UniProtKB/TrEMBL annotation:
<dbReference type="GO" id="GO:0043957">
    <property type="term" value="F:acryloyl-CoA reductase (NADPH) activity"/>
</dbReference>
<protein>
    <submittedName>
        <fullName>Oxidoreductase</fullName>
    </submittedName>
</protein>
<feature type="domain" description="Enoyl reductase (ER)">
    <location>
        <begin position="15"/>
        <end position="325"/>
    </location>
</feature>
<dbReference type="Pfam" id="PF00107">
    <property type="entry name" value="ADH_zinc_N"/>
</dbReference>
<dbReference type="InterPro" id="IPR036291">
    <property type="entry name" value="NAD(P)-bd_dom_sf"/>
</dbReference>
<dbReference type="InterPro" id="IPR011032">
    <property type="entry name" value="GroES-like_sf"/>
</dbReference>
<dbReference type="Pfam" id="PF08240">
    <property type="entry name" value="ADH_N"/>
</dbReference>
<dbReference type="InterPro" id="IPR020843">
    <property type="entry name" value="ER"/>
</dbReference>
<dbReference type="InterPro" id="IPR013149">
    <property type="entry name" value="ADH-like_C"/>
</dbReference>
<dbReference type="InterPro" id="IPR014188">
    <property type="entry name" value="Acrylyl-CoA_reductase_AcuI"/>
</dbReference>
<dbReference type="InterPro" id="IPR013154">
    <property type="entry name" value="ADH-like_N"/>
</dbReference>
<dbReference type="InterPro" id="IPR051397">
    <property type="entry name" value="Zn-ADH-like_protein"/>
</dbReference>
Length: 328
């Protein structure tokens, strides 16, 4: 095809515009693998890019979408051949490299991971960057020595994409999960995912004390700001919090007290430039440790022409669980 459908972001007089358009294949960027994209997904960062609420996009025109699953069409990379099923997340797609909300993508073969056995392309995008980030967080807690015997773990933004997957995975692994959410109506949903307790996010919204009562051995935080400061102040001696998001802000109004008086560790989680070997490990663990039935239950499907509308919804906190985008 000379052109293909894509969600194109352009610079405008005031901000940016995002719309479904025909994109010329000749405009695809350099890469040694061309993929027929079948499924994508909607993440918080996609919402920022689609709405222009943050300067996520750094070149124009841009095809939005930070992750995809599909089938290799052509390849000059030694690892990949036509017909291979692949997954790609991060690496600047939808930011500096033309992204995933399109019928075609051209990327570096070194960015790709083979679709894990037992996962469909749709399953992979039901997981997506959010689920991949959640698993990287779980792996970081495990590496730190946090196990179900260590004590409870907390998950913030628990009804969102990262939080839903983190809650489901941690509970399946045997952890006592305390799910924090600002949406009281989602309590039953979170308990169905495996949360043992559900707390209101307001418990973590007041200015943080240097040290507060110890409540958990570890946690996965996608919120940042005051919430993360409170998590750290309430973490047990020798515990750790995996920080992977900034839904409430980039600031961290904390103190050194949790680090130097309780030996607490703050584990930074980056899914964008994560090296390939940890990527493979995370995807294999997702294939084995995420209940496929629960994954299906937390996922809803939209069409390519609906992503802009849903991008605004995810920023407004109106999206529960995961959104998959059907491309073809």
């Amino acid at each position: 095809m000379a052109t293909f459908k894509a969600i194109r972001i352009d610079k405008a007089d005031k901000g940016t515009t995002a719309q479904l358009a025909q994109f010329d294949e000749a405009e695809l960027m350099e890469g040694d693998v061309t993929v027929r994209v079948e499924w994508s997904t909607l993440n918080y960062k996609d919402g920022l890019a689609l709405t222009g609420k943050a300067p996520v996009v750094r070149r124009f025109p841009m095809i939005a979408g930070i992750d995809f699953a599909g089938t290799v069409e052509t390849s000059s990379h030694p690892q990949w051949k036509a017909g291979d099923k692949v997954v790609c997340t991060g690496w600047g797609m939808g930011e500096t490299h033309l992204g995933a909300y399109a019928e075609k993508a051209r990327v570096k073969g070194d960015w790709l991971v083979g679709l894990p056995q037992g996962l469909s392309a749709r399953d992979a995008m039901a997981i997506g960057t959010a689920g991949f980030t959640a698993m990287l967080s779980v792996l970081a807690l495990e590496k730190h020595g946090i196990s179900p015997k260590s004590g409870p773990v907390v998950v913030t933004g628990a009804a969102g994409g990262v939080g839903s997957v983190a809650t489901a995975v941690l509970s399946k692994l045997g952890y006592h999960v305390i799910a924090s959410t600002g949406r009281a109506a989602e309590a039953d949903y979170l308990k169905h995912l495996g949360a043992a307790e559900v707390i209101d996010r307001n418990e973590l919204s007041a200015p943080a004390k240097p040290l507060a009562k110890e409540r958990w051995a570890g946690g996965v935080d996608s919120v940042g700001s005051t919430t993360l400061a409170n998590l750290l102040s309430m973490t047990k001696y020798g515990g750790a919090i995996a920080a992977c998001g900034l839904a409430a802000g980039m600031d961290l109004p904390s103190s050194v007290a949790p680090f130097i008086l309780r030996g607490v560790c703050l584990l930074g989680i980056d899914s964008v430039m994560c090296p390939i070997e940890p990527r493979k490990a995370a995807w294999q663990r997702l294939a084995s440790d995420l209940d496929r039935t629960k994954l299906s239950e937390i996922t809803q499907e939209i069409a390519l022409d609906e992503v802009s509308e849903w991008g605004a919804k995810i920023l407004a906190g109106q999206v529960r669980g995961r959104i998959v985008v059907k491309i073809v």
